Amino acid sequence: MFKKHVQLVKPKIIFGNLVSVAGGFLLAAKGNVNYILLMFTLIGVSLVIASSCILNNIIDRDIDKKMERTKNRILASGFMSLRSSIFYAVISGIIGLFLLYFYVNHISTILAVLGSGIYVVIYSFYMKRRSIYSTLIGSIAGATPPVIGYCAVTSKFNICALILALIFSLWQIPHSYSIAILFLKDYKSANIPVLPVIKGIQTTKNHIIFYILLFIISIIMLTIGGYAGYMYLIVSLIVSLIWFIIALSGYKTDNNTSWARQLFMYSIFTITIVSIMISID
């Protein structure tokens, strides 16, 4: 039963985002780390993300039943009541924002509200079922955690924060498209207008290549701006170029599912390495 409740908040998503929060925080700290501030930032952001994930599960509970990948989620399977889920979402969100507002700073709180609002209201509630561009909107929400971490230290949104937002937003788009190809049948069954469903896999591959190239350019910008060192740049470029090569191999593959799975898994590795390198260099 406890495992089911944990699944409601999508712990893998929370963990992945906390790595990027820490990356942004440590980049801004420049070796002078306030561990109490870091702790409150991580806890606050994790609770806000948990709240957003629960609300996403609530909104998607009907389409989750139609998808093989999501049909066993706690709300889709009827394991938890709607009232209880809403209660958990509200409490998590309130506590998370309270911690960010009173123990971090105002700008981090505003960014958390903005990211959650975009993800829950604009992406999940409205665009996911209606627009091919929902992935682009969702990527904006996905880029807020590292920016929150950065602004927790600086208390201001500057050029470095903007570059961080670009890096993580541009990463999210090909990452999400690989998921859409991997579970194409599910998205078709649920009538979700993601790019490969509407425009086809070949067009989606072109978009993946385009956004990975933009991602690589954004990585370089962080060093050009003087915000990260050359060790970060070299390591991040190597892993990103390998990701790009894997993406290019999609033009020759006869098995799009296998290719999309490889691209998806390596995208997670890529952003994890980038987050770590931002932290240490």
UniProtKB/TrEMBL annotation:
It is an enzyme of class 2 (transferase). NCBIfam families: cyoE_ctaB, PRK04375.1-1. It catalyses: heme b + (2E,6E)-farnesyl diphosphate + H2O = Fe(II)-heme o + diphosphate. Its main location: membrane. The gene is cyoE. GO terms for biological process: heme O biosynthetic process. Converts heme B (protoheme IX) to heme O by substitution of the vinyl group on carbon 2 of heme B porphyrin ring with a hydroxyethyl farnesyl side group. It comes from Candidatus Pantoea edessiphila. Its EC number is 2.5.1.141. It is a multi-pass membrane protein. The keyword Transferase applies. This is Protoheme IX farnesyltransferase. Carbon 2 of the heme B porphyrin ring is defined according to the Fischer nomenclature. It is found in: Cell membrane.
